Amino acid sequence: MIKEIKKTLDSSEAATIAVFLVFKQKRAKSEEQPGLPKHTLVARRINTSTDLQEAFVEVANSIVEHALSKDLALQKYSVIAADDPKLYTYDASSTASPIFSELKTQITRGSDDNRIKKTDEIDKSIWAYCVSIVKKGKRLDFFRKTSGSHVSTRSNSYLPKKVWAYFNVADETLDVTKESCVTFDRAFDFVAVGDQILIMNKSQFESILMLEDEFRERTLNLFQKLEQKEVIDGLDILKARSETSVSAMKHLARLVDTPDLTDISPQRLKAMVRVAKALKHNLKVKKGKLLIENTADADLIIKYLEDDFVKSMQSDQIYEASVKVALNPQSRKRKKK
Prior knowledge:
The structure is a single chain. The chain has an eight-stranded mixed β-sheet with strand order 2-1-5-6-11-12-4-3, sandwiched between helices. A three-stranded mixed β-sheet has the order 13-15-14. Strands 7-10 form a two-stranded antiparallel sheet. The protein folds into two domains: 2-146 and 183-209, no CATH class; 214-332, no CATH class. The protein contains nine helices and 17 strands. Helices cover 33% and strands 24% of the residues. By secondary structure, it is of the alpha+beta class.
């Protein structure tokens, strides 16, 4: 995918470039529906100079070239992943969340109806920005997350709350500016080609598209299944843990994709107890069910549900590993005795 993006950027054909500021806003009551996120993203196009457009293309080229030069591993997006540098691919057409679909429609349409006419319309609610580059009939949408420090508005006081300054080469003096301004980074977090997304910054990608809402929905589905199976006592503590810890919520959300790991059969429970005794873990079991009495119990059970304790075939060393790649997926399925 990244080579195709580079090929498009390197094309000698003239590019059409559009810049959008993306705002996060609460859905109108008339738009609220079961299953829809409470917030949505609104993309508003803003006029930009030729110099700025060329700078954006240069940044897009540089990050793609950097990724190619580093020969970064390309991996399918996963909620939980190792920290080593890599690129991720994400198929937005396979997700139930409408956030990206709604955003892509607005950017593709690029209507003048919602174009920003003056800087007074820009405030600290900017959520992200998108640089859309169209070449050879292909649209590359580069996204970057912003923060409050990216925007400064006029202030009645001498100094704005966040001090902004500029260097005027004419008088060689660094001076305070009271004008409204928006700053852009020399980086992008992900690029979308249709529904296919190449991710350079995983956490920012998740933040821009508000995937935490999707994770939360997935964990709720998981809890419903666990309640029906009646295999865990103290499930309310596990629910509370997912609400206070983003990490716990992500780990639980990932379990939805591996239903065999949440199938706590009597044989699986015996295996858990055997591992816990060997590792001297305080895994609590009562009347054939896993027991959660506190946060520590909840965190430990998440690890056991994920099958995080593995043994090396070379050294017999036991490791805790939340990120694993199954060489033989069928090996996870235990044989019935």
